[in-house]
Amino acid sequence: MNEDRKRRSVKSYKLLTTLAFVLLIGNTESFAETTTLSTVNTSSEQQQAQQIQGKIVDAKGEPVIGASVLEKGTTNGTITDIDGNFTIRCKTGSLLVISYIGYKTQEIRASKNVKITLTEDTELLDEVVVVGYGSQQRKNLTGAVATVDVNKTLDSRPIADVGRGLQGSVPGLSITVPSGEVGSDPVIRIRGQIASINSTAKSTPLILLDNVEIPSISLVNPDDIESISVLKDAASSSIYGSKAAAGVILITTKKGTKTDRVSISYSNNFSWAKVAKDIDMATINGMEYAIAAIERVGSTKTGAFWKLDKTSYERTKAWYEKYGSTIKPSDPIVYGRDWYLDGADKMGVRLYNAYDHMIAEWTPTQTHNISINGVTGKTTYNIGLGYFDQQGLIKSAKQDDFKRYNATAKLSTELNKYITVRTGYLFSQRTKSYPYITSSTTADPWLYLYRWGPLQPFGTDENGNIVRSPASEAAQANTATQRTNYTNINIGATVTFTKDWTLEADYTFANNEFLENKPGTRYSAADSWSAPILRKDANGNQIYVNQDGQVVPAGTAGGMTAYQLPYSMYTGKGANPDHIYRSSENMQQHTYNVYTTYNLNLQDQHLFKFMTGLNVVKSKTVTQWAQKTELLDFTNPQFDLATGTQTSGGKTYWESQKGFFGRINYAYNQKYLIEANLRYDGSSKFPDELKWRWFPSFSAGWRASEEAFMQWTKPVLSSLKLRGSWGIIGDQSVSSSLYVPTLSYNNSTWLDGSTKFIYYGTPSAVDRHITWQDFETLDFGLDARFFNDKLGLTFDWYQRYTRNMITPGVTLPETYGTSAPVANYGELRTKGWEVTLDFNHRFNNGIGINAMATISDATTYITDYPVGSPKTITNQSAYYKGKRYGDIWGYRTERLYQADDFEYNTDGSLATIVVDGKTMYKLKGENPVYQPFVQNSANFRFGPGDVKYKDLNGDKRITNGNGTEDDPGDMTVIGNSTPRYQYGFRLGGDYKGFDFSIFFQGIGKRSIWGDGSLAIPGYNVSDGAMAETFAKDFWREDRTDAYYPRPYNVGAVAGGSTSSNNTHIQDRYLLDMSYLRLKNITLGYSLPASLIKKVFLTKARVYASMENIITWDNLRGLPIDPEAISGYSMFNNSNYNSGRTGVGAPMFKNVSFGLQLTF
Amino acid sequence: MKTNIITRRVASCFILLSTLFISSCEDFLDRPQLNNPDDQSFWTQENNIRLFANEFYPQFFVGYNSSWTLDYSHFKGYMFSDDVVSKNVQSLFETSVPPSRGSSSNTTSAPAWMAQYAGPTWYFGWIRKANMMLNRLDTRMKGTLSTESMNHWTAVARFFKALDYCRLVSVFGDVPYFEAEFSTGDKDIMYKDRTPRNEVMDKVYDDFKYAIQNLRENDGNQCLNKNIAAGFISRWMLFEGTWQKYQNNDNTRAKKFLDFAVEASEIIMNSGKYEIATDMHTLFGSDNLAGNKECILYRHYDATQSVTHCIASYNCSYEAQDQSANLDVVKAFICKDGKDWQNSTVENADKFDLANLIKTRDPRFEASFLDKLNVSAAALLFTSKFVDRTGPKLTAPIPAKYYSNTNTNDAPVIRLGEILLNWIEAKAELSTLGETAVTQADIDKSINILRKRPLDEEAINKGVVKSALMSLAALPNDPSRDADVPQLIWEIRRERRMELFMEPSRLLDLKRWKKINYMKGSVKPDILKGIWVDLSKEMPSLLTTAKKGITQVMKADGSIVKFNGSNAADMVGFYLPEGVKDRDDFTDRVYLSPVGKSQIDLYTSQGYKLTQTKGWE
Known about the structure:
Chain A is mainly beta.
């Protein structure tokens, strides 16, 4: 069988190599020549040797398959077979080097019938870490580079992408998953949440796949990954130049194995998802809240399309008692029983739960991966295929899912001892399909799940017509797709001039295509938003019903005229989404990297490594879109089947960068390590005189444990390294029109006939002297290992300055007529620390345990800002010198007012007094604290049950002073929206084939002031929906210890001005977004090798894995995921669903099962 | 050896590639942005300056605005006046100096609308745009444009600049005047203090004069021309003239601006192009106003272009009228004999129930309101002026043009009706300043033309007839007339209130006449009441148990009756909106808006001074 496989692999080897050659040189003849040569070499070296046999096993006694056995100092070697056996011809007594990935390399004297036990390599100092343009032994690292244990972190997890998998496992790498939207990218930051306040500058790290920038981490198939390094400080990342300013994530993909065999792996995962947190929306309690809120201001009726008053509220309660348990969501909506008409108003009686109609449960996901890799002669290859299919949560949608196909191939062959050539190919297709319900991203169907209250109907009416709702629209909507096709082709070579001098050259062409198709429709339904019509029978006779909704003859006691919702096509012709829209974006990128490395070793004492190279990137992106309205066929929306207006547009972007770089590493006696980098960068983003810049960086390390005087610590301290680094990188991630005053083209809303006027806007003011932002990082760290390497500790402290930060210019008076031009006026400082602990131990009885914990923190201050900028505290996104990023200014809440705080008139009504021009309820006591400044509505007066703010400055008034840091009145910093103390910890173990791991992840501290019906008690009460948390715990005369204040309708004003009356930003109702998540539990079982080898398997593992399974948070039951970012989603990253908090696709949890096989 | 050959080939390959990359160094990093023209290269042809100017149109010629935006729109944009009443407390005047009153965002966004001032915030983006246009015409386009074109486009820029200064002055009084474009380095210019109103308005006067003399008679459909400019000049010169007379007591200046108002109005009146030829609902509810001879400029809407508005949906009963017409404005309508209700001899002229009002009042009453009480209006009298006859009557399913923000009826932006009223008012005011007296001929070619406006069939079927013409010899002597307002001017103002109900702008009228006290319930109690109702007959839904203690009417003797569950038959009287209360008291400082405190602080920190508006210091 082994022979068979070898033959097969030789064939494929020939095929692939030939392909590579055709690509590279176009000369197939020379190929045969080379192989002949190398064969001759090998056989000549084996002439004087004798046969040696041996067996290699691991700590558990299981044979190690495919371990490499090499005669030291030669190229003579072999690999172990399926039983761990090997034979090699060599001289007895020569040194054999035994190595296998994941185990410590051993050297033994060759002797007949040796048995070697390999020990696991958990955190070996000799481990090679991938760094910028090269690699480095871990022990010699001087920069802040974190590596990811790919196997433990990504294996067996039901996750869509690497980003989600890395959450919590690398300190300083902050990953947030803001919603459960399938196919969306997580938000990734390295060291702090912000690198620059300039909105066009990127704070996201550079993600490199085999040294080539990729547009999204989610295009990578987790199964293809061999290693991940995170370069955190400037000294490590500056070699990548101006795009790497916010850190680098280096991903390398699997290459061929090192051993002469073919390995085929197959793995799969089947998982099922359910909403992770109950969507606990108010029903009856919410109606009580609404009634209280309107009665307070003297109104009697409220509601959007479905109204509610005290009478209907009583009827709802009766309905709930009578039908609550018998009427199912699928039962039709019946006039008389479920609703009635009061004047022109539809009064709701029945309660509906949007969840029943909108959200699917246990939606499936599956993953399949196949990889083939091996080495034949001088050629290594790797082929990977992946398939991922994840269903979304929208229940009634025709299609709601995310699919990814991956195909990769890599081939490398050693032409001769000087030249190794390689080629690679990567294809990744991601497709997100979702119901195209609306073109709006500020009010999509998810918003409506949390907007209309429980009276807004779902389901069908008496006639069997579907009732207008987000669910009916999702069901009728056609499927939109967002497809990303990413392809890259790489050719490269390594030239080995001498043993110590190599040159690497690679050229990569990448093509990224983003295609969007949005086929619209027009909706028909029983229109729950419109005025009702009389319900008549087929003959046109009026129907009468009783209070149970049953049809009764006219004139029956208790009978009433029946109404129904008008069935209509309610989407106007050509109105949203009666159109077909397509867009495409094509990015082509050429990356050329060439660098040469020279190692100089002087008497094993002075080790030098010199590297110098060139990096050139150019890219061009072309976009276009087209839309045509008025579809003829709603089942087949096509451009040629639409009759309305056509619109289109498109843009072209191009940019280029060039960088020359060099690095020197020097190690003295393996103890003192120094590294220096220099990069000379040019960018097309700046005017000629500012195009080129120099960026230096340095780092140094001291391996203290190697000093003679430290030897006494050895039993405990296996190794200790102290390191420090300093570096500066320029950032050019800004718009290329930053220094050019441009005029923007737009369609006007001014019409001549049916033609829109077009116009050009006024050019904004620019500063022609704008230049690069510089990121300067200082880092101190230590790496220590204890107890024979079992326990490891890594610690880093850093400080990163963003110098010359691009900020809005010196504040100009509004008379200037436009914003002051941005320029390099600011400075920002992020300070933080990171700790990693790891532990590995295998007991003598075979039980292995491992643990890993990470924690990190970062805070950012604005250390410089244009002079004269007001230190505004009333706007969270205003910046000024000295401000800590993310600080939330607000009032302190003392408590809620109670009845005995106030004075009363003789008739029992509240006494009033005019304070600072406002009529207020009179408080008891001498000179009490009044709050006229925060009493903002004509129909609101602070009374019992309302918020009593704390008078921090003791002036007997609650004010914000002049709204600045210098005079904040009673405002103070009450929280910070930056995620602090991000941590993760994993515990794992294995025994006799069983393995187990459990992984937790969390955020220690984060606060936000939310927006919308889930975050603000009383938010737009008339819309109806609110979190049950508010509805069950608001102040009433008989519930004076309530947490939330007396109901009041907080009007939703465009721009999110919910800061008024009871809901000024304050500590009591600030959302505590800290959490701890049981992120993953995996239990696996690997079948014994002895059993599976009969079916030619080298590895067979089954496992069960659960993701996101429990979350502990401090949100008092509000249906908000603690990772939520208000207004952020893949569709709109600043004002998604009008910036309201938590109203996107809900976060989900998964249970999954999977299988992994290796042949 | 073959190996060496390969090595050499591969090596030369890379050397070649490297050379390619490095040799193209010079222009490799030259990647200017491609998507937008830049200021250096844009000013090459006349069409470009036209495209630049197009941005002004929807910002200054608002009509019904678009989508849900209500700024400057007829009806919803001009709700703050003595014409309407709301439930509970009436909306307030500004009570304190705001921290910020402006914006400096890019010019593509309009300044925020301030209902309490019927105007813009402290925003100079449009001034900057106009000044930039003047600068580019002068410095970049001299060789490109003919003299005629140059003069026309200069006039366009000066017109919009002057128009924006009129809006700013109407809100703030003194505003800094900027002659020309300036840069960030010109601190002394940008930090200049407020220029006295008179100086600003003299510049505006000159700009308007230039515009009238140099604008093309016709520059294409829907484009600014001499007549359109004249229309706006008529409006704003009347504003300034009367402001000077009543607020500043400066008759010389009053005359200067009133003369210009007359001149501008006459350009339109004498052009022969315009006439009052359609009824009110055709004027405000048509899908296409092209060819409507009353419109000097209209705004067109088209759903297929996604250019729609929401005003019609507020005029059908699908959106609530939180503020609706009060008794005070109803009483201002003349009866069909041309007299105010107290002087009228029309039968039942002193009755204020809806059926009687429709029969007895000027046709403009019937054209402005629905003939049935409607609970979606705070005071039950439902405005339906800004839509056709069909919309308010429909039951579901409602076509998109009547609900939500998908309405498509065209909006008159500036119409002859207003020009005639501007003209006659300016004439009347001038006659008090020593100019010739208004003649019957003047009345005949202005007010009486409006009174002869055609009626539509539905109005005729309801028995509505045109009012008697105004006769100078027989002006009614309204007992409720203010003592300081002459009889003729009083009647002209009344005509204006009827004709321009919910159009721009009753509030600015009150301000220029110095009559802001009309906004006080203590001065004008009728502004807090609705019309006469008999609820058990006309609106039984207000007499349900839920409405106990809430629904209320006021008897003729001023006593208030609240619904107690059993007195339905007694619920007859002037309707009082639920919980209605007068607005808080205010002083004369509300004539002008304060500037933001932060701007004043900013000036101080830079060593300059920005003076706060009088009364707000």
